[in-house]
Amino acid sequence: MSIGKKRTESHIIGETGIDILKQHLPAEWVIREYHPDYGIDLAVEIFTRGEKCVTKGAHLFIQVKTSYQFDRHIQSIPNRSNVEIPARPVEDKKYKMEVIKYTLDTDFLYTVERMGSGVPVLLCLVEIKTKEVFFVCLSDYIEKILVNERDYTLQKTKIVYIPTENIINESNLDILEWYAKRPRFYALFNKIHYQNSELEYVSQYDISKYIEHFIRIIRRFDVWEEPLFIPWMEQIDEEINYYLKHGITQHEDDIVKNRQESGEDVDAEIWEATCCDCNKEVSFREAQRVQGLHRLWKELSELGNFFEDVYKEAFLPTAQWNALK
Fold first, then answer.
1. Do 320 and 85 contact (CB within 8 A), yes or no?
2. What share of the chain is helix, strand, coil (3-state, %, to 5)?
């Protein structure tokens, strides 16, 4: 005879997992649970840490799975080319990685795919025995692995592999922030692409005005404060600072200085140069200044490609990420 509603063991384990995950996240962060949930358990809002906790306007979605203990396996990771272009021959090489295998319903995976990679969803595996939390970005996993193996939606379930080195703790919370800022990276890449297209129609006489205006716009994106895992952004940021200080990009300034040291008059207007007024001669210094700004914005516009080619595979069980680490 039934004597009342019962709490199942799976409910207790699930709630324990969420409690453990919360213990690994800063108290300043706001964690919202979905009831009922349709695959997404938590929405996390990132706040600054310190006396004044201010929202960063960055959000992360998490699916939590809990077990007393997960089995570890050594997985062989074959080398492959960039999945965004047709396959091409690569060096016959394999990587080894310790992973946890976890089976997910394809209905849930397809829901994550439909959300798009601009809204990262993390799968977090919480191990009660060790109180460790392992993660993988399902949005990237689907895009870089599943859709390139076969049509996973034809199966009811799919095994995903979570690297055991992907652990959430106090020392690597910046990884979670990096994922939460994904929409801002995409917005920045789109803005730079627009700016670079506009520069094609800007004369050498107006380019400084345009560039300084463009810099003010893209510097408002706070991803420059923490260009996590993308060293190229740090290099470009330094070059922008150099231009603001010297009125010319560093690479081109070095070229000008070398010409000066060899005795050339870099300020004599004797050159016909690309990106400059074709009806008027310009100095070597002016030609380098104008061409350097076009080069810099071309490199900026490549950031989105670089992100797509390389850094969307961050923390995934792929040869690309193993080679990059």
1. no
2. 45, 20, 35
Query: What distance, in Å, lies between the first and last C-alpha atoms of the chain?
Result: 59
Q: Is 286 helix (H, G, I), strand (E, B) or coil?
A: helix
CA 251 to chain centre: 27
Which distant-in-sequence residues (6+ apart) come within 8 Å of 186 by Cβ? 118, 304
Task: Write out the chain's pLDDT in tens, 325 residues.
Answer: 556 555 556 666 768 889 999 999 999 999 999 887 778 999 999 998 877 889 999 999 999 999 999 999 999 998 888 888 888 888 888 889 999 999 999 999 999 999 998 989 999 999 999 999 999 999 999 999 998 877 888 899 999 999 999 999 988 899 999 999 999 999 999 999 999 999 999 999 999 999 999 999 999 998 887 666 788 888 999 999 999 999 999 999 999 999 999 999 999 998 788 888 888 899 999 999 999 999 999 999 999 998 998 889 999 999 888 877 7
Count Cβ atoms within 10 A of the Cβ of residue 262 and give its class: 0-12 exposed, 13-18 middle, 19 or more buried. exposed
213-to-195, 203, 216, 284, 294 alpha-carbon distances in Å? 10, 15, 5, 25, 14
Cis omega before residue 120 (within 30°)?
A: no
User: Cα–Cα distance between 42 and 61 in angstroms, integer?
Assistant: 6
Strand 121-127, strand 55-67: pairing: parallel
* Structural contact between residues 104 and 158, judged by C-beta atoms closer than 8 angstroms: yes
CB burial string 196-220: b at 16+ within 10 A, e below = beebeebebeebeebbeebeeebee
Q: Which of 192, 193, 210 is nearest to 201 (CA)?
A: 210
Closest to 252 (Cα-Cα) out of 208, 195, 290, 211: 290
